[in-house]
Structures are given as C-alpha cells and as structure tokens.
Amino acid sequence: MQWKILAQETAYQGFFKLEKYQFEYARFHGGTYVVTREVFERGNAAAVLPYDPQRDAVVLVEQFRPGAIRSDQSPWLIELIAGMMSMEENAAEVVRREALEEAKCYLSAIEPIAEYLVSPGGTTEKVSLFCACTNSEGLGGVHGLAAEHEDIRVHVIPRLQAMEWMAKGRLNNAMSLIALLWLEQHYQRLQTQWR
Question: Scanning 74, 98, 117, 133, which has its CA 20 to 30 A from the CA of 155?
C-alpha cells in the first residue's frame, strides 16, 4: 500500500510536540484519501518489570500521571519503571538508567518482552518492553530526579499480589498489564534460569 506526506507543520511545541500532517494514502478498494491529522510526537520509551526470582516478587513504581486525571481512579498510577529514549540510547541502556533513578534498583539479566506502538491513531510513540532480574531486598522508599520533578514511590510486591491488583483494576496501564501477563507465562522458566 502506498502513502505519502503532502504537508507537515508544527502545531504546538512545549513539553511535548504536536505535528499537523496532510497525508495521501491508498484505499483498499482503489483510489486514495487525502486527510489532515494532528500527531502527538512524544518520542520512544523503554520500560522494565524488575522480577526477583528468589522472592517471587516484582518491583513497581507509583507516581502522579497527568494523563490519568480524567480516570475514575487516582492519577497516582502504579506502573513499570520507564523512561524516554534519546536518539543515542538503546532501550536496554534506558531501562538500566531508569531503574537506578526511579527505584535504586540494579538489573542483571534483561529479557525483551515486546515492542509496540502505544496508540498509532494519534501518536508515534513506541515502547520497548523488558523483564529484568533483580534482587529486591532493601528496595523501597521515594526516589526520582528532582530536576525532572519526579516523586516516585517504590513498591516491592509478591508476583501473585501484582496479578491480583491487575485482576481488580488497580493496575490500569497497558505496559504494566502486558508485562505482567508475559511474566505469568514465563515466571517458572525465569525462576530456573535466573537463580
């Protein structure tokens, strides 16, 4: 299928960027459409679910998320450790850096889970998702970079409790759900492999 960008302009530039595009793309039954769409240019992210196979526990973080203010639940979300990627970084470097910044958590083995587009109808953001081996002993507290206005609480919880939180809707963001569902399928292998 063919497509092309006919025009592009920056509609907004602030903490994030909004681009306005005019596209022409082929239709399945022939012909083309010309459409104008705004696309949220956020950049790409990497996220990690630290898993402690000795304790059968996961490390999650809790922080205020402005995008959740209209949610029926609190805008303080419990989620994976994550961060935005610069052009020079690879995803594994990002999750190692963010684990230290957000949770004082050291990662050993890192296993890819998936790469996915967050919401391709309106944003270009792609997430690289990982599970990583960690020793969760002594983890907790509040961390983050003051320069980035981060105020991040660390939770170390049993894997089964995380699954219960997911089932009850306490964990309500896609990257956490994807990673925990993946872990549920692979934790026995990881317990053998990472011990």
Answer: 117
